[in-house]
Amino acid sequence: MTTVALPATGERPPASARTILLASLVGTTVEWYDFFLYATAASLVFPALFFPADDPVVGTLLAFGTFAVGFVARPIGGLLFGHIGDRLGRKRTLVATMVLMGAATALIGLLPGVATIGLAAPVLLVVLRILQGLAVGGEWGGAVLLATENAPPGKIGRFGSVPQVGLGLGLALGTGVFALLGEALGREAFASYGWRIAFVLSVVLVAVGLVVRLRVLETPEFRRLATSGGLARVPAVEVFRTREHRRGLGLGMLARWAEGASFNTWAVFAISYATTTVRLNKVDVLLAVTAGALLMAALTPVAGALADRYGRRAVFAAGVVAFGVTVLPSFYALRSGSTVLATVVLVGQLGIGYALMTGAEATLFAELFDAKVRYTGMSLVFQGSGVWASGLTPVILTALLAAANGAPWAPGVYLAAVSVLSLLAVLAMYRWLPTARR
Question: Quick one: pLDDT at residue 9?
């Protein structure tokens, strides 16, 4: 395992690998639960509560627009917290992002609607969504580095996949809690106050995450840099100044396009499409997404192990190809109105195709940058591309469907083209990245 300097007398000994991975996993689970809870609410609750309109498509577009605002804030959070993480340490940053995310999410759960406070309601919703974006923008890179910079040789892919499991668990928790509340309370009670319970519950999850996260020390890699004086003065400047880092930034952002589009197609847009356009039962759709998320959580470490054996890019590329080939048939299956086919699509896309991408990408992006700018660089890749790859995907797909009079070929062709661009970016990495880091 990576050598860690022995603590001085009186200092707390380094945490075990299990504790480190648990801190990484719990943190990302809480962050993604909070962040994508908003996505589910934007599909089911927010259009009527915060953006009432005569045309339901307009209300949905406005709700998804505020969803996208969080993704615009994420690269800003990546720059801000990436700088702090590269200068002051990974651990401090991760504690700050968790507290910020929990507070913003709980406040959304307490926010009155338009009928109560007028236009102040959507304005405050956007502000809180921005705070969510800032928090998750800084969380992801630190959680990945907490795992990978403590990984034994030959197991970086496995360790790097652990915080990615939090994405599946967070999504499963969010959709699962919504499905449970919707079934237990009924439609009217859920729309009135039931959805708020899921948001306020974030306070409890954050408290649990902080207890675990405060037990770990700083990563050995950062401690080595701090001791040797190798910290970057302004990490973002060094990322853009160095040719290799610029190239990694550009190719990484293009490569991630398919991953971000895939997740937000099947975990966000598909919920709205299946329940409002196809008219499938809301609880059935949420349970299908929950099942897909749980399968994703189970198979993501498998993808991490495959990444150690066959290379990060090969595994990630396999997921991109699977997405591109199956996306159009999947849309037609959703449109059929069959709950069984919809379940197969959502479970298969999230649990298998997406798991291949997410299980390999953390280590893939971490290895694009030197340690002294790694937090900033990989955060910019993940969060910067998230603006169009993730945040705008539901808006784009909604608009394409409307323009094509509901025909699924339009979003299907768009997403297939995205997968081609991402695959080309992954293949281009082989031309310059060292063999040991492929």
Answer: 39
Coil, strand or helix at 299: helix
Distance of CA 91 to the CA centre of its chain: 20
**pLDDT at residue 137 above 70?**
yes
pLDDT at 3: 36
Residue at 62: amino acid letter: L
Helix (H, G, I), strand (E, B) or coil at 290: helix
Cβ density class 315-328: b for 16+ within 10 Å, e for less: bbbbbbbbbbebbb
Residue 18: pLDDT above 70? yes
73's tokens: 């804030």
Provide the 10 A C-beta neighbour count for residue 356. Answer: 27
For 26, the enclosing helix (H) or strand (E) is: helix 17-44
Class of CATH domain 17-220+235-437: mainly alpha
At residue 349, φ and ψ (nearest 5 deg) are -65, -45
Convert the pLDDT of each residue in 212-259 to its tens digit.
888 877 788 888 888 888 888 899 999 999 888 899 999 999 999 999
Report the C-alpha gap between 202 and 189 in whole angstroms: 20
Q: Report helix, strand or coil for 41.
A: helix
Q: Where are the domains of the chain?
A: 17-220+235-437
Query: Rounded to whole angstroms, how far apart are CA atoms 88 and 70?
Result: 25
- Residue 293, classified by CB atoms within 10 Å of its CB into exposed (0-12), middle (13-18) or buried (19+), is buried
Helices (H) and strands (E) in the chain, counts: 22, 0
How far, CA to CA in Å, does 137 sit from each of 81, 253, 300?
Answer: 8, 15, 21
Tell me, what DSSP letter sits at residue 55?
A: S
In a 3-state reduction of DSSP, which class is residue 98?
helix
Distance of CA 318 to the CA centre of its chain: 20
Burial of 270 (0-12, 13-18, 19+ CB in 10 A): buried
Length in residues, the chain: 438
Q: Which amino acid is at 60?
A: T
